[in-house]
Design goal:
single chain, 187 residues, mainly alpha, two-stranded antiparallel sheet, 9 helices
Amino acid sequence: METVRVEDRQSGRFAEVPRPLAEYLSPRDLVELEQAVRTSFNIAKHDEAEQALDRVAAGDPTRLMYGLLWLTTMWSSLSAARIGVTVPQFTSALGYRGLRFDLSGESEQSWATGEQALRRGVLAVATSVEDTHECLRVYGRLDPGLARLRWIMLAIMDGLTQDMERNGVAPWGAAEHIVRAAGWAQR
């Protein structure tokens, strides 16, 4: 698995960010997705953001789910480097409780099961192409349209990006910076 090392200049530690799997989304698609995700966190722009997310999915919700997992993996890697833990340690703590959970209508057990499956996917993207494929297959069986898992993933990402900003790690623009620095946009 090809990765790029990104230095956290504040801590001096490095994050390993995996090259996106082109069979799902191109590096350029991921840069666009990052902006759509950011827009989705603005309640006033919810409909606009949903349309942008649907465009990325292009009729295949697996494409979008992979992109959300990749962005979360990238942000988790950067955050783990900042605070000095491993990516598995960091991803094991990913979760969300708040308004999005309250509005979801999900039971506590159903939400927890979704979070657990998504944490496994984030770790898979960081470590194994085969595990990534398997997670996406399992997601399709658990939630055929991936709408429920998409909602939970966006809630996790919202909480994660807020935590990053509070700790001086800039999530927005990170995908573009990494894609360009690694030379992935030209391939």
